[in-house]
Amino acid sequence: MDLYSILREFADSWALLALFAFFIAIVVWAFRPGSKAVHRDIANIPFRHEDRPAPAGAEAQETSK
Predict the structure, then answer these.
(1) Residue 49: what are its φ and ψ, rounded to 5°?
(2) Coil vs helix vs strand at 37
(3) In the chain, what are the domain boundaries?
(4) Are 28 and 22 in contact (CB under 8 A)?
(5) Which of 40, 50, 54, 60 is the residue whose CA sits 20 to 30 A from 19?
(6) Over 80: is that where the pLDDT of 8 sits?
């Protein structure tokens, strides 16, 4: 059996299964319980200083929280 056939058989079976398992793990991680607050905070980044500019040094204070 040549190298191409061996690699093709591996890619068609175990590699496909590993990629599918990785995809499912990422989806489960994204929708895990307790992540709603984190996602909401990240989604609101553009609207944090909508009325006025951020005060000097505001980014450094927000990232240290």
Answers:
(1) -120, 55
(2) helix
(3) 3-44
(4) no
(5) 40
(6) yes
